[in-house]
Amino acid sequence: MPPKSSKPADGLDYKAISKQFAKARAAREAREARDAEAKEKGLPTEKEQTEILERQRELLNTKRQKAYERRWWWTAAFWTWLLAVHAVGIWLFASGFLLTRLVLDDKSSCAAPPVEGLAASQAALDVQKGCWHPKQFDRAVVILIDALRYDFTVPEDPAAAHAFHNSFPFLYDTAVKAPQNAFLRPFIADPPTTTLQRLKGLTTGTLPTFIDAGSNFAGTAIDEDNLLMQLRESGKKIAHLGDDTWWSLFPEYFEPNISKAYDSFNVWDLHTVDNGVIDNIFPLLESSKDGQWDLLIGHCLGVDHAGHRYGPDHSAMTAKLQQMNEFVTKVAGSIDDDTLLIVMGDHGMDGKGDHGGESDDEVEAALWMYSKRPVFGRTSPEFAIPPATAKIRPVNQIDLVPTLALLLGIPIPYNNLGKPIEEAFAGQKGNDWANLEAVSRLASAGIERYRQSYFKARGIKQTVEPGSPAALWAAANVAGLSHKDAYNYLKEFENETLQVYKGLWARFDVPRMVAGVFVTAVGLVMLVMYSSKPADEEFVVANDAELDYAERRLELMNLNHEDQEVHPDQHFHRSLLGGLADARVLFVVGVLIAVGLYRKQPMDGPAALVVTLLITGVISALSTSGRSILNILPRTFWGWLSVVLTLSHSIGFASNSYTIWEDSILLFFIATFGVAALISSFRIESKVDRTMAIYHTVTFIIIGRLASYSKLCREEQMPYCTSTYYASVTSSTSAPWQLAIPFAVFLILPDVIKAFLMPSKSYEGLAPTWIGYAFRGGLFLSALYWTIDAANNGGWLADRLSESTLKSAGVYLAQVILALSLIAGSTSFAWAPPNISILSTSAKTGQLVTILGYGNAMGARYLFLPLNFLAACILVTKPMGSGALALMMWQILCLAEIIDLNQLKAESIGPVMLAILGNFYFFKTGHQAVLSSIQWDSAFIPLFSIRYPWSPLVVALNTFAGQILAAVSVPLIVLWKVGPKQRGILETTARALGVFIAYFAVEALTTMSWAGWLRRHLMLYRVFCPRFMLAALLLVVMDLVGVLVALTGVRSNTLAVCEVFGWAE
Amino acid sequence: MSSALAKAPSAPATDSKPKAAVAAVPTFDNALSKGIAFSRVAVLLGLLAAQFNDLVAEPVLTLQSALPVVAVIQVAYAVLCLPAAGSQQAKTAKKARPGEKKKPEQAGTSSVVTAFLALVLSTIATPVIHALFILFGAPFLDHITHTFLCAAHFSLLGIFPVIYARGVDSQALIAVAGLSAPLDETLGGLLGAVLGAWLGAVPIPLDWDREWQKWPVTIVCGMYAGSCLGSWLSGVVFFGKRLGETASAAKDE
Predict the structure, then answer these.
(1) Is A752 exposed, middle or buried (0-12, 13-18, 19+ CB in 10 A)?
(2) Across the interface, which of A638, A683, A702 has its CB nearest the CB of B180?
(3) Which residue of A has its CA nearest to B244?
(4) pLDDT class for A333, splitting at 50, 70, 90?
(5) Hey, which bits of A874-970 come out as E strands?
(6) What's the CA gap between B180 and A834, in Å, rounded?
(7) Contact A681 B19 (CB under 8 A)
(8) How confident is the prediction for chain A on average, in pLDDT?
(9) How far is CA A659 from the centre of its chain?
(10) Distance CA A625, CA A569 (A)
């Protein structure tokens, strides 16, 4: 039998069992003597009795297996219930926190201008001449260049220029050369800076709120009054080319024969959309096509995709901008005198080419308007030259709405909050104050009309103190003002009103938020109670095959008397959930739901009540089964350390600094645990164990620090942080040298894993094939994939293989790897035998059977599951991240050894450290708690285009690789160096998983509380809101992975091992 | 000598273990030693307070110039207050002491020699402490002198008294490393320095834009405060108690 150092803790058990065994052996000897007697008398012999015993053994095994499966199903049911609790808490909070805006159904109409009594010379109330104001243009061409940042369009000193500078000079040059024909100004987007929200803002003139951010993957039609709706009502025709987001926002708006939509999410493809727009737009600009359209929209995506794929500072961006320059030049030459040409960006991009947040680079787009006929003016001579930076004289994106509406002579959409852009109405000399006042008054009156309806609909009272919009409105309407003064008053009114709405739409539903926090908090109490260890329970690992064997024989001898044996925890989970089916509970729940439905109330109140009620029921069931509320108090140093690490991490989220520097803080925690484990290791009595524990601890700490070199800095960390994840700060591709990392992983990682299995002689059974060939092969293929990807990005094989050939090779390779690791891997995991080998040697006393790998039978086999997921995660992670994930696996194995050697399997520190590692490696795989760090391009690793549900799944696997790997490894910590006869595995694993999830639940609860509490904080959308969204999403993902992978994995592992060794309980 | 201090109540609980053989290091039980031990704390903290502005302005220079001063204070404290490794006071509890210098009758010279050796060993330990700082996230390639000087101060404060009192007795040092040795001024000083430096890292990330947040000012301050507090507390209040008694007891159940 494999030698296994006995641990002091085994003592009691061992003695008790061996005493029992001695007793049983005496009984058996006595029986043998009886047997001999019996044989003489012709009764059943020993042999026959063995057969009977054998049959009984099988019976017992079947019975135990069935009991186990029942236990497992109840455990899974409990975890599903937990998932529901978390989902309800998050939903309640999010529905109050993620802001929503009341959408008014009112529409503007040509016949009803907001200003009454307008002279017919101004307001013809006729679309042909201009509804509310004489129109300037018959038609407009809008070229929307996605993510056209302002600094792409203004000249930069060539010495300091990046790849994105000076490639698109046409806009600036025309504005300087012919200020009456063109102007260029910074165009500030309101966050969130995602295309869908921006299109809403650009057409309705209002401020999309944060709740819309989630719907970017599947846009929904706009039913608010908007420019396109007004055009359609006025009988004008709209044509659209490019990004298909427009089609989901404006279904059936576009002229069917001449419009053409292209898929918008294929960020790998820089050219299809742009070429489609360019090829199709010029035929429409020919004079023969007059009357086919009045508004022509061309939405180019190449610049945005080049940013997402390569980052702005890349030659692909230069090429793209040059192409746009040429394109716009040509369009400007092709339009006629009565056509207005607008070129604009819907948002900018950050240093890596991503967007979504509200950093300066993300909101600063460019706006350029052009007309062949001189119409534009400047109210001051110094405005003639376009601003050098986006900080000077910016216009809001919503200002486009009244401007375009008035220029084309259609009504301004009802919900508009923008103001007319000065240049377009100031007259060629820039002094037409009467015109400026007139358009400004129209826009302001519209805003005032909207304000009154909105306040009425929401029941908000108006204030009239000085400086309020109402007071400013009154001031602007005083008789006898000069046109210029009136214009300035109106401008002030418009600015102030916009500020009011910005504040108003940051109006949170506090009761819902409180309900969400409350439900999450109560759910957390339940989870922590569930995960606490009953004082009388111990998870003692007694890996002694001889002892196990003895115990087993003892069991069989006593079999007949213990027919009714029931597992101590057989009904634990059932009784927890059983209370929910109580008639009184069901009655109350039913009444609440019925009343809610009957009175057509919003369901948040009843839902919060019902869930709280149900949780309270589970909590009381928990208290009666030995896990009282007091039981959650830590009893050991390690318990306290878990609490301190969890709480200090979570409390830190109240500070934007600690949230920003979370990655460094997690490294600090990892080192802290390492030092505590080191101190503890010095206390181990056995010299061998002590040395091994110290070795693993030191390795653990060093790996953490090594991994910390892979980082992607968030904007707020500058200038104290250097990104290493990509080739450069302004890139989102890997540097060529980084390709060495996946190859190093392929060479080294399998051997590292082997080295962890060798000491327990568990590199047996399927392990050499699985780890040495399959896993290694998968890693090699991943490395190959990233080489192909790099070759494709860098154009290394440009003259030999086409880009599409390389892309297809990569995609199919990636599909093979995913199929190998997840599908084939999971199937084999379900069927694999334990990692053991049986050696027979003859000794003097007869055949001696040695089982290699007995002492780690549970853990070594379970390890396959995390390895499968690791292989998949490494594929979908960029080269730098694959190194980080490999280090993570190494660190997890070290952790398993540390936990085993220090006998901490029943402590909470193991799962807590796994959670910390998971979060740590989230940052080490090129992520930050900001929307723009989501690596959308990973969706295209195994696919050519967006496909549901696979694309979001791949992005999730990429984003949460660290945490998923950690969640899958929770059982590994419990099962490592645990033999096949261990009792209480399911219960201990479920508890460990509970602690693990509790860590994430605490994070969700605290980020939610802080985000709610700091809802007026300057950094809310930059720091607190994204961190809450991350924590909330993580909690749900971890719940799902916990049930679907970890618990299921434990079940299949236990079934496989116990099939070979028989059931211990 | 220091039997007056209450160490009886806690010790017997785990006496069955071999590690109990490592005894606490008492300070000399005379007025001079007590006075010096107390004034050392006052002088170190006073020095820190006096030099704080310089430390913020010129961390490297200040730490460098303070190093010999702190070394002198620590050596004086060790020689005058602590029993040197292998001297009578420390000997009572144990038998063999491998790799130990001869034991001359003259306690004075022996102490000075021991102090010198301990100083050398502490210097050797400094790169290890430096590495530990880096493992906790200190910059690796820049601020090397900052970190190294910080580590040198840590060595002087935390490591030096331990080596002076324990020598190179592996059993005792393992007990110290495992915190299973009973609390005394040396262990308390080390533990306090560790915890102080740990807590010192807490304000660094905050966006308060204060000069004193720069590396390694807060660490040095935390280290000094922690070490002084730790050695005073464990010399006077918790002398002879063992850490983690409840924890290890729970584990062994």
Answers:
(1) middle
(2) A683
(3) A637
(4) very high
(5) none
(6) 40
(7) no
(8) 87
(9) 16
(10) 10
Q: Does B139 touch chain A (CB under 8 A)?
A: no
Chain B, nearest residue to A12 by Cα: B253
C-alpha Rg value of chain A to the nearest Å: 35
Residues of B in contact with A698 (CB under 8 A): none
Collapse the DSSP code of B215 into the 3-class scheme (helix H, G, I; strand E, B; otherwise coil) and give the result.
coil
A780 phi/psi in degrees, rounded to 5 = -65, -45
Question: What is the distance between the alpha carbons of residues A889 and A145, in angstroms, rounded to a whole number?
Answer: 43
Of residues A371, A320, A29, A394, the one with CA closest to residue A175: A371
Helix, strand or coil for residue A843?
strand
The reply to whether omega before A949 is within 30° of 0 (cis) is yes
Q: Measured between alpha carbons, how far is residue A647 from residues A350, A650, B248 in Å? A: 33, 5, 24
Report CB contact under 8 Å: B137, A682: no
- pLDDT cut 70: percent of chain B above it: 79
> What is the β-pairing status of strands A238-243 and A295-300?
parallel
B111: its two tokens: 């102490």
A542 has a pLDDT exceeding 80: no
Residues 6+ apart with CB under 8 A from A772: A750, A754
Query: Is the bond into A192 cis (omega within 30 degrees of 0)?
Result: yes
Give the Cα-Cα-Cα angle A259, A263, A265 (nearest 5 degrees): 145
The vertex-B105 CA angle with B100 and B108, nearest 5°, equals 85
A85 contacts: CB under 8 Å, gap ≥ 6: A519, A523, A526, A611, A614, A615
> Does A671 sit within 8 Å of B247, measured CB to CB?
no
Q: Does B179 touch chain A (CB under 8 A)?
A: yes
CA-based nearest distance B36→chain A, Å: 31
Selection from A678, A941, A577 nearest residue A788 by Cα = A941
Match 């009456």 to its residue by tokens: A180
3-state secondary structure A532-558: CCCCCCCCCCCCCHHHHHHHHHHHHHC
Terminal-residue alpha carbon distance, chain B:
36
Q: Do B247 and A638 touch (CB under 8 A)?
A: yes
pLDDT of residue A366: 94
CB of A702 less than 8 A from some CB of B: yes
Q: Considering only residues 535 to 574 of chain A, which have any Cβ-Cβ distance to chain B shorter than 8 Å?
A: 538
Instruction: State the DSSP string of B23-85.
Output: PP-PPPSSHHHHHHHHHHHHHHHHHHHHHHHHHHH-HHHHHHHHHHHHHHHHHHHHHHHSPPT
Q: Is A630 left (phi over 0), alpha (psi -120 to 50) or beta?
A: alpha
Tell whether A920 is within 8 A of chain B (Cβ). no
What is the complex's ipTM, to 2 decimals? 0.86
Confidence check: pLDDT of A537 > 80 = no
The pTM assigned to this predicted structure is 0.79
User: Hey, which residues does A144 pair with through a beta bridge?
Assistant: A299, A344
The values of phi and psi at residue A140, to 5°, are -140, 140
Q: What is the pLDDT of residues A248-292, one digit of tens each?
A: 888 889 998 899 998 876 777 889 899 999 999 999 998 877 889
What are the counts of helices (DSSP H) followed by strands (DSSP E) for chain A?
38, 10
pLDDT digits (tens, 9 = 90+) for A544-601: 777 777 777 777 666 555 555 677 778 888 888 877 777 777 888 888 888 878 876 6
Burial class (CB in 10 A: 0-12, 13-18, 19+), A768: middle
Cis peptide before A719 (omega within 30 of 0): yes
CA distance B137 to chain A (A): 6
Please indicate whether, in this complex, the C-beta atoms of A664 and B205 are within 8 angstroms of each other.
Answer: yes
